[in-house]
Amino acid sequence: MPASSAIAVRLSSVRLDRGGRTILRGLDLDIPQGSMTAVLGPSGTGKSTLLAAITGELVPTEGHIEVFGAEVPRTARGLLEMRKRLGVLLQGNGLLTDLTVAENVALPLHAHARLPDADVQRIVLEKLDAVGLRAAADLYPRELSGGMARRAALARALALDPPLLLCDEPLTGLDPIASSVIMQLLRRLNQTLGLTCIVISHHVRETLPVCDQAVVIANGGVAFSGTPDALEASDDPLLRQFLNGDAEGPINFEGAPPAREAA
Fold this sequence. Notes:
The chain is of the alpha/beta class. Helix 6 (176-193) links the parallel strand 7 and strand 8. The chain has nine helices and ten strands. The strands form two sheets. It has a six-stranded mixed sheet with strand order 6-7-8-3-9-10. Strands 2-1-4-5 form a four-stranded antiparallel sheet, with helices on one face. It has helices spanning 47-55, 76-83, 101-112, 117-130, 146-157, 176-193, 204-207, 228-233, 237-244, and strands at 7-18, 21-32, 36-40, 62-67, 70-71, 86-89, 164-168, 196-201, 213-218, 221-226. Residues 255-263 have low confidence and may be disordered.
């Protein structure tokens, strides 16, 4: 874990509802600045819901969420300013198919930075260099492999040099080699740039080895928060079920917890 005691993201007594149903409740969580944190858990347990709350897409029913010491804003202008400091790597990449890789990476710069075209081109090539895709600058998304497309989306997420990177299931649809490349790349960026990185994933074996902190979401709340070594060593039945991939155990695989009446 990085030595800095500064907190990039803090959740305090957070409850998150969707469609009149409580998805997550009682969330207390600190993500240190400069750390790489894995948020793990079975599919459908609320990991992406947590990500939506951090970005301000979903307003908590209860509690508080702070990003770099300031509560997540509720106004459109406040959210826009906060989101300039967030890089988001979407599960489906979100690349525009009629634009080249370089044009996709340039999109955030055109939208949020008033820079000459020469500076935009320079930054785009720097970001593509960082993910090993400079030679693919003029290709279209349909010409990329799954791993290349994920790296192109990562380059776009880094275009504005955000101090916080949020990755929603970055290994979905990738083979083991491409998965390893993506996780090693995220770790290198985390270490060389001092980037705080939150990785939402259910791919335990590929994700844990490169992270400083592990959080397990299950049964409507935080089931574990600590180091990857402590998670691996735990004898908690719920954690063992998840780590071992057992069908039987205390984790509810029917989805989110039962609906609760609004307080």
